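Explain this fold:

***
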Amino acid sequence: MTNDFLYIPLNSKNEFRTTASFELNGMKFSAVDVKIDTGCPHTSFPMLKLGLSENAAYKLKEADCKNESVAKAISFGVNDTKQKRDEDKRKFKSGRFMELNSISFRHTAEGFSLGSLTLGDFPISVSYDRTGNTLIGMDILKKLDIFIGKNKSGETVLIACKQETKSFVAALSELIDVKKV
């Protein structure tokens, strides 16, 4: 069953988490735990976290490194030092992609759904060396109308939709006084 909106309660770690399903390069993934991250500019999928073996991830990384049509970028964690950033930038510029854990590759997640909300195809960043959270970033979130507030029982929730519907307005009216004009 698909809904026309997301309704995600804030968890005990102050995170909004849900599941995602999609197809990526012929591999199907369902019920993947994802974190909503408004501070992340690009949706990021660490393939090792999605269940790929290290060997399979290595082979996919190697193929992406050799494929000139696959867009490549480097991204850094909050704990990466200036020295590591500078070194990785030099390696990236010289095409030494396999040596970089900070490299990500642009792919399309086909048939992407967030919770039970079907969103379509989206470009995402894929990393083959990292094992952190699977992050839903602003590149996807900006396509939704998002509201965060407390419901009538005092629970903080995130409600999001692609377009306004009666069921979305009813859920939203639990957070704020919604009046049709």
Remarks:
- Strands lie at 5-9, 17-24, 27-36, 44-46, 72-74, 103-114, 117-127, 135-136, 145-150, 156-161.
- The first helix runs from residue 54 to 66.
